[in-house]
């Protein structure tokens, strides 16, 4: 079985430039640079100004459409910049799926910044304040969907977590699975629904930092929906050192036990998946982030 991040279709730089030029001839697009790729999209920088994202898998088509609908409605209400899709591309004979473009955000993803624990701890307050503002938005007026994927059902991700942990053991990143068994034993089915606007895929690769290592943006919003705030609290366990969690909690505001526990379980998921994904694609920075998350989530 192919890995879940295996692409069904990859747009080359030349194809991407041609698609952008055909969809938006007024741009006079002439320069293109690969920005990176994730599970769902391939991203290119066009003319040093516009970031265009092209789905790599059919499942990502709906995510592009959700972003294009929700992000313009919430961008002005949040304390950190987020992408705002402005230039859309329709399916065509050349490419069967929609794509979107937004103005380039300043900064680089936190996994590329090689942040030490002190610099990561300094992100606690701004990220907590960002999440508090996001979770306070009335998501019903944004066009955000409800959670149809049972994202709070941690039972269904146990095989994914175990697979990632086994890959980490095989690579010598962790010694064994036994320290994680208590967390794996706390899994549960879907939690009662909550209508909170959540990013729902928030980890080190989706946080932007500037040259001074300050938070300066949050990207990749395809999973945004009305759901459970605990999904986003994974940041406190996977990105922040344990010593910074109390600072995060004070800046965010009251956090109930259910949300905090879900955040820890989600943090374990990200640690395990980053190890497996990073090992598979040969990304040492992601492997290091996953390994660190697996250490911190136990503390």
Q: Tell me the CATH architecture of the largest domain.
A: Alpha-Beta Complex
Q: Report how far the terminal alpha carbons are from each other.
A: 34 Å
Tell me the strand percentage band: 5-15%
Mean pLDDT, all residues: 95
Q: What is the top-level CATH class of the largest domain?
A: Alpha Beta
CATH topology of the largest domain: Aminoglycoside 3'-phosphotransferase, Chain: A, domain 2
| Range of helix content | 25-40%
Shape: globular
Number of domains: 2
Your description of this structure?
- The structure is a single chain.
- This protein is an alpha+beta fold and 299 residues long.
- It folds into 2 domains: 13-103, Phosphorylase Kinase, domain 1 (2-Layer Sandwich); 108-296, Alpha-Beta Complex (Aminoglycoside 3'-phosphotransferase, Chain: A, domain 2).
- It is built from 10 helices and 10 strands.
- The strands form 3 sheets. The protein has a 5-stranded antiparallel β-sheet with strand order 1-2-3-5-4. A 3-stranded antiparallel β-sheet has the order 6-8-9, with no helix packed on it.
- β1 and β2 (41-46) form a beta hairpin.
């Amino acid at each position: 079985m192919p890995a879940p991040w295996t692409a069904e279709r990859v747009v080359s730089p030349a194809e991407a430039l041609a698609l952008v030029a055909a969809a938006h001839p007024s741009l006079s697009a002439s320069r293109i640079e690969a920005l990176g790729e994730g599970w769902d999209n391939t991203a290119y920088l066009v003319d040093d100004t516009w970031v265009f994202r092209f789905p790599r898998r059919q499942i990502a088509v709906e995510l592009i459409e959700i972003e294009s609908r929700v992000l313009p409605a919430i961008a002005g209400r949040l304390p950190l910049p987020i992408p705002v899709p402005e230039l859309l591309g329709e399916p065509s004979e050349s490419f069967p799926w929609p794509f979107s473009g937004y103005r380039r955000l300043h900064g680089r993803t936190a996994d590329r910044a090689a942040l030490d624990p002190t610099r990561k701890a300094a992100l606690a307050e701004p990220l907590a304040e960002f999440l508090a503002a996001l979770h306070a938005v009335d998501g019903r007026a944004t066009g955000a969907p409800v959670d149809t994927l049972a994202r709070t059902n941690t039972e269904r991700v146990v095989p994914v977590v175990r697979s990632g942990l086994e890959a980490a053991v095989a690579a010598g990143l962790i010694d064994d699975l036994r320290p994680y068994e208590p967390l794996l034993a706390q899994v549960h089915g879907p939690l009662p629904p909550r209508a909170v606007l959540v990013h729902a895929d928030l980890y080190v690769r989706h946080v932007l930092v500037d040259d001074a290592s300050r938070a300066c943006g949050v990207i990749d919003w395809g999973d945004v929906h009305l759901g459970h705030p605990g999904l986003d609290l994974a940041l406190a366990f996977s990105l922040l050192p344990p010593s910074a969690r109390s600072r995060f909690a004070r800046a965010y505001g009251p956090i109930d036990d259910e949300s905090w526990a879900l955040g820890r379980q989600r943090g374990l998921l990200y640690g395990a998946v980053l190890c497996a994904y990073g090992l598979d694609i040969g990304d040492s920075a992601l492997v290091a982030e996953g390994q660190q998350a697996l250490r911190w989530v136990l503390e």
